[in-house]
Amino acid sequence: MTKAMPALFLGHGSPMNAIEDNIYRQSWEQLGKRLPRPRAILCVSAHWETEGVAVTAHAQPDLIYDFYGFPKALTDVRYPAPGDLALAQRVADLLAPERVQLDATRGLDHGVWSVLVALYPDADIPVVQLSMPVNETGAAHYARAKRLAALRDEGVLILGSGNIVHNLRYWRSHDARLMTAWTRFHDEVKRRITAGDYAALADYKALDPEAALSVPTPEHYLPLLYVLALHKPGESLEIFNDQDGGAIFMTSIILGET
Fold it and tell me: Is residue 1 part of a domain?
């Protein structure tokens, strides 16, 4: 029996990680070299929220430069990976009877391409992106992710791209109270991950009385649930890029590599 493809949650942080030679980009480059080559990639990014569920269905998706105030070198980045219409339909079939829109116009946002340029720089692996519906509970996202588990056995790398702690309002803050709250929330999430208590992580507001300081809006946190939901019994789990990041923690996870 073929081994399941690993699944990844990557703390993507600043779009500048796509072009800077820093420890995060270096870790993604090294990871791409050691992982088995997937036949396709399905990405859930913090930067695509929709009213219902949608999946990209374009043979050659464009890039979306969904940010401002960054140098031109960032908008000069190209990542001409093909799409995969068959995978888009497979995702829709797996999520049935939930209705999934096949979006033939949507491109790939920076939560996708900013990590893939380092992970798979040749841009020769098909990429499909799955949206996250707004105004849903974490439990609903977690349950949806479980229905995608078969894709790992079909050679698809499932990638969640976000951040456990992400509060840009206080990006440059060194306030001791805030830093304590961020670290406490991050450490509690890590504790639950290492204990395998994934269902509890779906209700992130219950993890800490000041959780809103770490997750003021849920979009960067939710991709974590899409990956943890895919963890198979007895499968390895590795935490990396686990640096204290202040208002943005880059903590990342790989499931099932060994």
Answer: no
